[in-house]
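Here is the promised in-class demo. Please do not try to memorize the tokens; focus on the logic of going from shape to residues.
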């Protein structure tokens, strides 16, 4: 939880070719932008770009250092999807929804 003293928007990052592809296919999140490493190629990347275009998602091309600055030393595979965070639900709300 972010302190009320800080007024900054947090973003959720999805990284890796397959996780980003599946998120775009599912369309269950609000996407802000797609960030790709300069020079990244492949069939999955082409499909990601096609879906991004279909969803009118802005695409940014960055160098490796910029991507690592966002996610650290993880296997991002040159692909990062920036999304709006999901709203969290309380445990009580979850149980109420499950109970019907």
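The designed amino acids, position by position:
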């Amino acid at each position: 939880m972010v302190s009320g003293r800080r007024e900054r928007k947090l973003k959720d990052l999805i990284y890796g070719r397959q996780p980003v592809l599946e998120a775009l296919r599912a369309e269950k999140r609000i996407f802000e932008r797609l960030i790709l490493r300069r020079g990244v190629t492949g069939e999955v990347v082409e499909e990601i770009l096609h879906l991004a275009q279909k969803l009118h998602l802005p695409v940014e091309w960055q160098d490796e250092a910029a991507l690592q600055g966002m996610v650290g030393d993880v296997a991002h595979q040159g692909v990062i999807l920036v999304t709006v965070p999901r709203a969290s639900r309380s445990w009580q709300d979850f149980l109420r929804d499950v109970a019907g």
